[in-house]
Specification:
77% helix, single chain, 12 helices, mainly alpha
């Protein structure tokens, strides 16, 4: 109950702050329009030159897949790694460790609350705009689409937070985690279908995206394709498996970090 109240308080406070000071929303929306919009125009032209079909995929499904990636990115879950690193570098982590709440849970809920308002607003506006401009693919009208989209969105959020929290916890040993962050982040971008949609992946690259935690953290981009109707439970199962495995890694790293703070910090 204590953690639920903490989560509720953090999210409410941060959403009110974002509403009052909409700078983050404007920045996230402009970034999404710039990156996603340019890609959508580019792929529209590519599909037009290719007769409307590439590798069995049509433009409308590829466009929605790209949009889902960039909409999900407005949650800014990746920033948790740098938040943890800053806590370590400034020494703030010693103060937070002494609080009667879990440091990791505090950081997780803070990250969710920090990006939730931008995510909701940008996703709603982007969905309306895209639906009016290019329409909605048939795969998004089937009954299982919304429930499974929600499930994989939750799974992607959990896995992303765990993955980037592990990167952040490395700061207790190497202090500057930026090189590791860049490697992990680029792997997520490539295998998640940001600039090259998963429908256009070569077979070997698709398998890597399917079974690696980097690709699994972006399975929301798979939901618009026809294969999702048959494979959704397998993909969500992969997300759960990676979340459990990496969750254990994060847990033991956190225990080691607490011991390190106790020894060095007194």
């Amino acid at each position: 109950m204590k953690e639920i109240r903490l989560a509720n308080k953090i999210i409410q406070t941060l959403i009110k702050d974002r509403i009052q000071y909409p700078g983050r929303l404007i920045a996230d929306t402009v970034a999404m329009i710039a990156r996603c919009g340019i890609l959508l125009i580019l792929y529209w032209y590519v599909f037009k030159l290719s007769g409307g079909v590439i590798n069995g995929a049509i433009y409308v499904t590829v466009a929605w897949s790209i949009f889902f990636y960039f909409a999900f990115s407005t949650l800014r879950l990746r920033d948790i790694s740098r938040s943890i690193m800053q806590d370590v570098q400034t020494g703030n982590v010693e103060t937070l460790f002494s609080k009667p709440v879990s440091y990791l849970m505090y950081r997780v809920w803070w990250q969710i609350g920090s990006g939730l308002y931008s995510f909701i607003v940008a996703t709603i506006l982007g969905t309306i705009a895209l639906a009016l401009i290019i329409g909605i693919p048939q795969t998004m009208t089937i009954g299982i689409f919304l429930p499974t989209l929600f499930l994989t969105l939750v799974g992607a959020s959990v896995l992303s937070l765990i993955l980037y929290a592990i990167v952040g916890l490395l700061a207790f040993w190497i202090e500057d985690v930026n090189p590791v962050f860049w490697l992990v982040d680029k792997a997520v971008m490539i295998l998640g279908g940001s600039y090259l949609p998963i429908a256009l992946f070569p077979a070997f690259m698709y398998q890597i995206a399917l079974y690696s935690p980097f690709g699994a953290s972006q399975f929301v981009t798979h939901t618009v394709y026809s294969s999702w109707q048959h494979d959704w439970y397998v993909l969500i199962g992969i997300q759960i498996a990676w979340s459990v495995a990496l969750g254990l890694v994060m847990y033991f790293m956190f225990l080691g970090a607490k011991k390190k703070v106790s020894v060095n910090g007194g």
